[in-house]
Amino acid sequence: MSQIHVIYGSDEGNVAEAALALFTKLKPEGGDDFSQETIDGTVSNAEEAYIACGKAIEALQTLPFFGGGKTVWLKNANFTGSDRTSEAERAKEGTEALISCLEEGLPEDVHFLISSSAIHKGRRFYKFLNKVGNIEVFDKPDVGRDGWQQEMIPMVKNKARELGLSFSGHALDLFITLVGVDTRQISSELDKLDVYLGDRREINEDDVRLLVPLSHAGVVFEIGNALQRKNAGRAFELIDQQLARKESAIGILRASIIPTVRNLFMSAVVSQGRNVPSNNYKQYAGALDALPANERAWLPQKKAGGVNAYPLFLASQNAKAFGVEKLGQAMQACLDADKSLVSSGLDHRTVLHRLIATVCTS
Predict the structure, then answer these.
(1) Whether pLDDT at 220 is above 90
(2) Are residues 233 and 344 in the same domain?
(3) Are residues 204 and 220 in the same domain?
(4) Distance CA 31, CA 28 (A)
(5) How far apart are CA 301 and CA 166, in angstroms?
(6) pLDDT exceeding 70 applies to what percent of the chain?
C-alpha cells in the first residue's frame, strides 16, 4: 500500500469528508502533536503556493522527536488545477520540489495526504501521483446530462438514513432536483428537515417544498415540473423570476422547456400501443431496454450503453395527459420559439409565455 494518498474532485463536500476520515485513520495511534501536521493549501498567489509546498516538504522531513510515525496533510490545495495561479512558474517550482521530496521515498511509518478540488491531469505532478499514490476522485454529476438525478439517489438516501430519515412518494426526486449536486448543501438541507420533522421520520413532498430553497438546477426542474402538470401559472412565475435575475431566455428554453417536452414526447411514443409499466423504475427501464434496437436508437443513451431511462420514467407519469399528437405539436412550437429568440426581435418574455401557454393547453 502506498504511503501517498490523493483525494480530489469537484464535489468539495465529499472531498473534505473523505480526506478528514482518511487523515484520522492514518494518524499514528497514541501519537502527539508532532506526529500529525496539517498544511493549509488554500493560497491566493503562486508565491504562497510555493511556500505551502515548502511547508509540506519540511513537515515530511521533520520526524517526531521521540520516534514513531507521522501523517502530513496538504489540505485543500487550490494550486494544482488549471487556473492562473496553478499555471504560474513559482507554483510549478513548488510542486516540482514536492515531487523530488516524495521521489526520494518516505520512511515506512510516514504518510502524505493531499486533498484538492482539481488536479490537472496533463502535468507531471498528477502523473507522478497517479503512478505512486492511492487516488480517490469525488466529482459532482453533470447536471447538464439527462439522468444526473439518478446518480445522486444512493448518496442522498445514505445521508438521510444516517439521520434516521426516509422519503415517501416522489419526495426524494423532488429533494434532489431542488438541491442539486452540492454535497454540503444536501447535508445542510437534511439537517434542517431532521429538526423540522421532530419525531416524524418520513419526508414528504410538502416538507421538501416548504423547507428546501430552489437551486439553479431546482428552478430548471420546477419549470419543467410545472409544464408536465400543465400548471402554466407556476411556469410563468418561475420564468419571470429568472428573467428578472438576468437569466437568458434561450438558456431557459434549452435547459428546461425543450428537455421537458422532448422527454414527454419520447415517453408517450414508446408507451403508445405497449404495456410499459410507469410505476416502477426498474421495470420501466427493463421494458425500454427490451425494445428492438431500431426503436431504442433515438432515445437518450447512457455513456456505458443502454437507454438512459430515468428522465423518460419521470416524464411517463404525465405524458398520457398530453398524447403523442399534441406533444409532437409542442415539439414544433419549441423549435419555432427557439428560432424566434435567436433571430427575431420579438420580446423574449412574450415568446416564452406564448410557448408555455401552447404546451399547457396541449
Answers:
(1) no
(2) yes
(3) no
(4) 5
(5) 30
(6) 95
Same domain, 154 and 255: no
The pLDDT mean for the chain works out to 90
Q: How many domains does the chain have?
A: 3
Same domain, 178 and 102: no
Are residues 223 and 106 located together in one domain of the fold? Answer: no
Phi–psi pair at 10, nearest 5 degrees: -75, -15
CA-based nearest residue to 141, from 129, 127, 155: 155
Give the C-alpha distances (Å, rounded to integers) separating 230 from 28, 175, 240, 279, 326: 61, 21, 17, 20, 13
CA dist., res. 133 & res. 115, Å (int): 12
Alpha-carbon separation of residue 138 from 199, 267, 268, 303, 311 (angstroms): 33, 32, 36, 18, 24
Element (H, E) at 308: none
Q: For the chain, what percent of residues have pLDDT higher than 90?
A: 63
Q: Is the pLDDT of residue 91 over 80?
A: yes
In whole angstroms, what is the distance from residue 30 CA to residue 170 CA?
A: 48
CB 321 within 8 A of CB 361: no
The pLDDT score that the predictor gives to residue 195 is 95
Question: Could you tell me if residue 142 is inside a domain?
Answer: no
Q: DSSP readout, 116-139?
A: ES---TTSHHHHHHHHHSEEEE--
Are 111 and 161 found together in one domain?
Answer: no
The one-letter amino acid at 268: A
Q: Provide the CB-side half-sphere exposure for 61 (13 A, CA).
A: 13
Closest C-alpha to 86, from 127, 54, 130, 42: 42
179: domain range?
A: 148-211
Do 35 and 131 share a domain, yes or no? yes
* Distance spanning both ends of the chain, measured CA to CA: 61
Phi first, then psi: what are they for 70, rounded to 5°?
-155, 145
